[in-house]
Design a protein that fits this description.
By secondary structure, the protein is mainly alpha-helical. Helices cover about 80% and strands about 0% of the residues. It is built from 24 helices and no strands. Helix 16 (about 255-265) packs antiparallel against helix 17, helix 19 runs antiparallel to helix 20 and helix 21 (about 355-370) packs antiparallel against helix 22 (about 370-385).
Length: about 425
């Protein structure tokens, strides 16, 4: 009887405590802010960034303080929203947060954005006094190095991160992503397995593993992973497109079409889904319909070799052989150039500090792959050699094309200055 009474009272006690807590929070804005701040900090530590922002958003504007803005900056940094980071750091400064804390966050943001020239001089200082930021420091610098294709610098930081924080899945996830981008499928799967062992609820890691297993033609294992992801996030457009690829490879055309139509219903402008649908139409024999979609996609992505190849195939299937022949020539030329790029990238694995090699890769990316990809390579060039005149000239041209006048003028001046130094 006594046990029954105790069991009956515990829920009532918890309810009373909860009601008292809510009442205190309502009565005291400072206490309310403190509770929501603690919950946001915990979510950030657990890599649940959207949950952290949700807790911060629940604090009214009038009740936010410097710490609130600093936590916002950390959350936006993890999302890669660097303009918002700057806004929040300024607000934190205005609310009296110490310059020392703001500088640390700025250095981490610079590293996370790949601005290693600005961030790297502070790396040792951060490591010698990590405070509670050890994992963040490792993540930001590994990400920055990988953004700049500085694999040899990322590797020892990854190894130290794994050793220092053995229960953190994030280093294994980042390593897997790096290996996947390098098309080292088996090694990527191994890293993703380690990450999932530490964080079995991460759908994105599981999906990336499924993609790698598909590339390895291990379709049965990939299917199991994909289906688990679909149960967890059934409306994730990127997941649905990747599942569509598996379906096409396994000849399940009807289901593939239905999946793509679902994505397009959710997001009609989704380029990946439109491209996948065009390839499906081409396989179905609807070549003329595929041509219309692919021509529009090529206007939107004039540097994409896969789109050019599919368009050439669709033109040929539609009887437009002259146009198809010309486009196949462009594809062959692009593929040859991209093979050259891959050879150059492979050379960086042995000797990463080659600005001229990186510049050549950048220019290939600009004209045959993606201007954004080319931009990342160009930034890695001037990070290694700030006086590389040709890279500054190419950066000026890029910023001219997207209408960023101040950056264009800055790099044009630097290109002229360093070109003159070379001729003197």
């Amino acid at each position: 009887m006594r046990l029954f009474n105790m069991m009956g009272r515990k829920p009532i006690r918890r309810i009373c405590i909860s009601l008292v807590t809510i009442a205190l929070c309502v009565a005291s804005p400072a206490l309310s802010r403190m509770v929501q701040t603690v919950l946001a900090e915990r979510a950030l530590h657990q890599q649940r960034v959207e949950a952290a922002i949700g807790w911060l958003d629940s604090i009214p504007q009038w009740n936010r303080d410097g710490k609130t803005h600093l936590l916002y900056a950390k959350a936006y940094r993890k999302q890669g929203k660097f303009e918002l980071v700057r806004t929040q750091l300024q607000a934190a400064f205005d609310d009296g947060v110490s310059v020392e804390l703001l500088e640390r966050e700025q250095w981490l943001t610079q590293a996370r954005a790949g601005q290693m020239g600005e961030a790297e001089p502070h790396f040792r200082q951060l490591l010698e006094d990590p405070r509670d930021d050890g994992q963040d420091i490792c993540e930001c610098f590994v990400t920055g190095y990988l953004l700049n294709y500085q694999f040899s610098r990322a590797a020892p930081v990854l190894a130290a991160w794994e050793a220092e924080f053995p229960t953190d899945p994030r280093p294994h996830e980042l390593k897997g992503s790096w290996l996947q981008d390098s098309e080292q499928w088996s090694a990527a799967v191994e890293s993703y397995e380690k990450a999932l062992g530490l964080n079995p609820g991460n759908t994105r890691i599981r999906c990336d593993m499924a993609v790698c297993l598909t590339e390895l033609h291990d379709y049965d294992k990939a299917k199991v992973r994909f289906q688990q992801c679909l149960r967890e996030t059934p409306d994730d457009s990127q997941l649905l497109i990747q599942w569509n690829e598996w379906l096409l490879l396994n000849g399940q055309m009807d289901e593939a079409r239905a999946i793509l139509q679902k994505v397009l219903n959710l997001s009609p402008a989704n380029q990946d889904a439109r491209f996948a649908m065009a390839k499906t139409q081409l396989m179905d024999g609807a070549a003329e319909t595929a041509v219309q979609t692919l021509e529009q996609l090529q206007k939107e992505n004039p540097y994409s070799t896969p789109i050019k190849y599919s368009l050439a195939s669709a033109l040929q299937a539609s009887g437009m052989t002259e146009r198809a022949s010309e486009m196949f020539k462009q594809v062959r030329s692009s593929e040859e150039t991209l093979r050259r790029k891959q050879q150059l990238v492979d050379s960086l694995l042995k000797s990463p500090n080659q600005p001229d090699v990186r510049y050549e890769i950048a220019m290939i990316s600009m004209s045959h792959e993606s201007p954004v990809e080319g931009l990342r390579w160009l930034l890695s060039v001037v990070d290694l050699n700030p006086e590389h005149a040709a890279a500054h000239e190419a950066l000026a041209d890029y910023y001219h094309g997207i209408g960023k006048v101040e950056l264009e003028e800055k790099h044009r001046r630097l290109a002229e200055t360093f070109a003159n130094h070379k001729t003197e």
